[in-house]
Amino acid sequence: xxxxSFEYKRGTTIIHKLDPRSKFIYTILFTALTVYFVNPxxxxxxxxxxxxxxxxxxxGKRWLRSIRGSLFFIAFxxxxxxxxxxxxxxxxxxxxxxxxxxxxxxxxxxxxxxxxFLTTSPEDLTQSMVQLKIPYDYALTFNMAMRFVPTxxxxxxxxxxxxxxxxxxxxxxxxFQRVKNYIPVLIPLIISSFRRAELVADAMESRAFGxxxxxTSLYVLTMDRRDLLFISxxxxxxxxxxxxxxxxxxx
Amino acid sequence: MVSxxxxxxxxxxxxxxxxxxxxxxxxxxxxxxxxxxxxxxVVAILGENGAGKTTLIKHINGLLKPQHGSVIVSGMNTKxxxxxxxxxxxxxxxxxxxxxxxxETVEKExxxxxxxxxxxxxxxxxxxxxALKEFGLIEYKDxxxxxxxxxxxxxxxxxxxxxxxxxxxxxxxxxxGQDYRQKLHLASLIKKLNSEGKTVVxxxxxxxxxxxxxxxxxxxxxxxxIADGKSEELLTNRELLMSASLLPPQLVELSWDLALNPxxxxxxEVVSSVKKLLGGKKS
Lengths: 251, 283
Ligand SMILES: Nc1ncnc2c1ncn2[C@@H]1O[C@H](COP(=O)(O)OP(=O)(O)OP(=O)(O)O)[C@@H](O)[C@H]1O
Ligand SMILES: [Mg+2]
Fold this sequence. Notes:
CATH superfamily of chain B: P-loop containing nucleotide triphosphate hydrolases
Strand content of chain A: under 5%
Oligomer: heterodimer
Number of domains of chain B: 1
Order of helices and strands of chain B: EEEHEEHEHHHEHEHEEHHHH
Number of helices of chain B: 11
Bound molecules: adenosine-5'-triphosphate, magnesium ion
CATH architecture of chain B: 3-Layer(aba) Sandwich
Number of strands of chain B: 10
Mean pLDDT of chain A: 88
């Protein structure tokens, strides 16, 4: 549960201060690259592109934690691809290269998204979505969903503790039994989420949410020279990597 | 080493030996806890928000294993014992009932633990019946737990643990959201459990409740136990209460104001002192 809690913490580095839209452009461009290429070296380059951001932003520890937390999935992806590709191609070398690529692709994605979410405050993200003309309702829904992920995972832990105290053994039985074991955990989790959603809705309405069609913003995000520099660098790196395909024919 | 001493053999039922636990590196939620609770005792654990009370009691049924030191419950080291084994002896009722109620009806909710602990088929309805009566839930038997009021849900959560008759009962904040009648009911329930030889640990902010009904108090602050002793001594100690951010019981404040010596948490002692004071003035 901890693995994907891209929990934002306030920071004062350049990366933190960049406009979310600039970081978003980087995220989109490099996500596209991870999907486009299968060559392990290129995927490794894409992964490396996020490292300077992580270092400058000083989020190394939490970034490492996201990656470490996803090791299980990476192992799964690796083995799955290894078996699958060996089955279809019959070549162990090809299968290994393919599995490495797929694992690298996943690591690169995790790394890029960590760099984005760990340095972007939910408020700024919402604001930038609004400035990108996304309807405020959707922007806010997204923001709240992000914000409640850590709350939800902590709550799941408490509920598991409460049910284990009443003799529930989650690891007991065969695979079907085990899935069933989670029902006493999932139901309170869902219900308390609904309860919370209702509470939040009431609290928002009682503060006149949605009373006015036209919202004004206290803070307006602006792009400055740093943003332009960052976007240019991202674009240049993106084009450079892309040109490898055209010039060298790398897949 | 597996210890198979039976439940009755042990006098010191719950023993904490220099226990520390931290959720995140660098900050201990509880630190150097030494505590011993004997069979048949009733103990209140008091302390400010975040003092570590919930963390401490989660060690008793093994939900948390000490990172340093050891916890021995009825002769069993919690490190070598599963939660399911300990939970049969240690009934822990959580702060928030919404974290455990899940069944379609109140009745099924009460059956959950009984089924988990493999109670006999004939035994289950009897215990459910007892719990429904004891906690005034009979009329709600077939209702979904989520439609009960906050206080009723709290009572149901309590009932769903007490119905399997654990030897040690641990209650986290049982009085929040309960009206006075329910508090009195809770107090008499604790008394009854105790008279059956059960050991009861109550975590609470309700200092009046502790003063009125619980003879021993353990006061925590910032992850440590700062005092452990008789309620009537600790709860009349001004400096101690201040340092644990606890509001003194009203009777104690009254006895301070009247300069009674010694101050007391017992209503009749205050009354007789006041009578003496009044009498003294007349003569
Ligand atoms: N799951 C958790 N993860 C991280 N920190 C935690 C967790 N649970 C508790 N803590 C921290 O440990 C400390 C002790 O918490 P604990 O819940 O034991 O306090 P408490 O005495 O029960 O407080 P309260 O009276 O508010 O219930 C607090 O600082 C709390 O923030
Ligand atoms: Mg607590």
